[in-house]
Design a protein that fits this description.
The chain is mostly beta strands. Helices cover 4% and strands 55% of the residues. The protein folds into 4 domains: 18-109, Immunoglobulins (Immunoglobulin-like), CATH 2.60.40.10; 116-192, Immunoglobulin-like, CATH 2.60.40; 196-284, Immunoglobulin-like (Sandwich); 289-370, Immunoglobulins (Immunoglobulin-like). It has 1 helix and 35 strands. Residues 20-101, 117-190, 195-285, 290-368 form the Ig-like domain.
């Protein structure tokens, strides 16, 4: 009878002394960064006492919230970080053996802008790099689109070389990692022009009193544009009432209704915008017909004496003076000097003033040479 009791006790001990067995855990789990994570590790069988141990990527976890009871253990992580992704292992053991369960935990980091693209203004032929940088886990794929079509880029970096007008448009950067909402940013790329003026013509000389107009027309350039006019490098202002300036968005006109000699100058149109400036110069020359300042006068002179004949004229350009007697040119000075005149110096003299504009001024005078008077002396 005693033998049977001992045998039954031995059978009972052998039956209850089991190695532990864990309820299977999922092999993979994902969670969003900042969330709370809880993992229950529970045995389905196994003899007490049981000992639980947690590890991450092969390293035992100590400084972490773990709650352990007789038959289960719970790992808790509040506000989980992306760096806490990894392989988590629950191990349970007793005197008869051990069991483990491993779960691969992926902490999804939401997509965030690291370098958010912005609107870009480029000049023609300018080079530009536009960055679109996004963080997140898994690492996002970044693509660029222009006007709805995918374009070539490298790691979110868009390069524009020697910008032209075909590069302008609506660009969109999209970042996605298959686990989060797609991050996108739409920007506008504008290609701007510094201004360029159509070359101004070379004008013939103007006559005093004529109407002069100069037109400054923009060949290209991004608005708004600002026009200025200069007369021989001096800015034209409202203090010059004889000069009228009218400007629109793309052109500017300078007008002088009745030109005078003093209006002759170089007139320069300067246009500028935020991206540069340009200038063009037009020359105004004003020709004034010759006018007498001092008309020559006829003269009488006695043989052997000296005489000076004088004429002077104004105009623009300044008239050249010539003295002639018949077909012979005597001088190109204002004053014609005749020394010790004789009867052969008598005759018609002609002063000519000309400047290549309009009809020359011509004045004919006469010089009369008288013989010396003989004085009769009588002695009484």
């Amino acid at each position: 009878m005693g033998f049977n009791v001992v045998f039954l006790l031995m059978l009972n001990v052998a039956f209850c002394s089991h190695a532990p067995k864990l309820i299977p855990l999922p092999s993979f789990a994902s969670i969003k960064e900042g969330s709370s994570f809880k993992l229950l590790c529970s045995v389905s069988e196994g003899s007490d006492p049981l000992h639980f141990k947690w590890s991450k990527d092969g390293k035992t976890l100590f400084e972490i919230n773990i709650e352990t009871n007789e038959r289960d253990s719970t790992l808790k992580i509040n506000e989980i970080k992306q760096s806490e992704s990894g392989n988590y292992t629950c191990e349970v053991s007793n005197s008869f053996g051990k069991d483990i369960q491993v779960i691969n935990l992926v902490v999804k980091a939401p997509l965030k802008w690291q370098k958010e693209p912005k609107d870009v203004q480029l000049l023609l032929d300018e080079n530009e790099i536009i960055e679109c940088s996004v963080t997140g886990f898994p690492s996002p794929t970044i693509i660029w689109k222009r006007n709805g079509e995918i374009i070539s880029s490298l790691n979110g970096i868009l390069r524009i070389s020697k910008a032209s007008h075909k590069d302008k448009g609506i660009y969109e950067c999209l970042a996605e990692n298959g686990m989060d909402v797609t991050l996108r940013k739409v920007i506008k790329v504008s290609v701007k022009d510094s201004p360029k003026i159509i070359p101004m013509p070379v004008l013939p000389p103007f006559t005093e009193g004529a109407r002069f107009g100069a037109v400054c027309i923009i060949q290209k350039g991004t608005e708004p544009l600002r026009f200025e006019w200069f007369k021989n490098k001096e800015k034209i202002t409202d203090l010059m009432p004889n000069i009228q300036i009218d400007s629109t968005n793309v052109m500017s006109t300078l007008t002088i209704n009745s030109v005078k000699r003093e209006d002759a100058a170089n007139y320069t149109c300067v246009v500028q915008n935020s991206f540069g400036k340009d200038s063009q110069t037009i020359a105004l020359s004003v020709k004034a017909s010759p006018k007498w300042l001092k008309e020559p006068e006829s003269a009488n002179v006695i043989t052997g004496e000296d005489i000076a004949l004088y004429c002077e004229a104004d105009g623009f350009p300044l008239p050249a003076i010539r003295w002639m007697k018949g077909d012979t040119e005597l001088s190109n000075e204002k004053q014609l000097n005749l020394k010790r005149v004789s009867s052969s110096d008598s005759g018609s003299y002609k002063c000519i003033a000309e400047n290549g504009h309009d009809t020359p001024l011509v004045k004919v005078i006469s010089v009369t040479v008288f013989g010396k008077k003989k004085i009769a002396l009588s002695f009484g």
